[in-house]
Amino acid sequence: MAIELTRREEFSVLTLNRPDALNALSFALIRDLATALDEVAGSDVRALLVTGAGEKAFCVGADVKELMGRTLVAQKRGAEAGQHAFARLDVLPIPSIAVINGYAFGGGLELAMACTFRLATPGAKMGLPEIKLGLIPGYGGTQRLPRLVGEARALEMIMTGRTVGAEEAERIGLVNRLIEGADPLAEAIAFAREFSQFSLPVLGFAREAVKRALDNPISEGLRIETDLGTLAYQTADAAEGTSAFVEKRKPIFEDR
After folding, report:
1. Given a cut of 90, is residue 38 above it in pLDDT?
2. pLDDT tens digits for 134-143?
């Protein structure tokens, strides 16, 4: 199977499983990825971890041989299929974490950027090298990278196609943290537990408010924050959280 979906305690682990091809994104794999994400959306897990099989690569991007000799219509539909598959991560009811355990190039980095958070091993390498093929990123890279690192850095990375190492990626905000232990997934789970204990609906409101901030003037963003904050206040978890604070005890959230 090109996609392996397993469970590790209260978390789903989605593994790109083409290590012989450095987990390249074939069109078949992208279809399987979309199906797997739909399955995750219907489960009771607290977060999703996305990683690549093997020790060399998270994902090196598109399977370039599949891109050759295609019609304009086929190319457009292929780009849309990748964008729509990755966009499922935006609407998952749970946060997602890309565990970048090696190379993350092209579509592989675009997949990681579509996740809520990104963790990287010290030897990880990242980049959008499409310009070297006479192409530009097509699975959301031109849109998500500037939102993470700013317009100037995004233009530099995309227009030069250069690779950044893990430390630079952390410094510029492309990844959240570096993970240095022998078991990257265990470290990713520890990271997930920093937020997975909280109310999933309210975590969703927080994610939505921050994402909307990037697409609206501050006056509209403040209105959105007010609306989402009001919705959060109506949840049973908000009542539990405030009561627990007053009573000096740990809250027990029930995701409602």
Report:
1. yes
2. 999 999 999 9
Whether residues 10 and 100 share a domain: the answer is yes
Q: Rounded CA gap, 253 and 22, in Å?
A: 40
> Tokens for 19?
């290590």
Residues 127 and 39 in one domain: yes
Q: What is the CATH number of the domain that holds 156?
A: 3.90.226.10
Long-range contacts of 38-46 (CB under 8 A, 24+ apart): 38/88, 39/5, 40/5, 40/12, 40/14, 40/92, 40/94, 41/88, 41/91, 41/92, 41/93, 43/12, 45/7, 45/10, 45/11, 45/12, 45/94, 46/10, 46/11, 46/94, 46/192, 46/196, 46/200
Bridge partners for 48 per DSSP: 12, 96
Residue 115, domain extent:
3-192
Q: What pLDDT digit, counting tens, does each position of 56-76 carry?
A: 999 999 887 877 878 889 889
Are 202 and 222 in contact by the 8 Å Cβ rule? The answer is: no
Tokens of 182: 């022998």
Active site residues: 110, 130
User: CB under 8 Å to 202, separation ≥6 — which residues?
Assistant: 232, 235, 237, 238
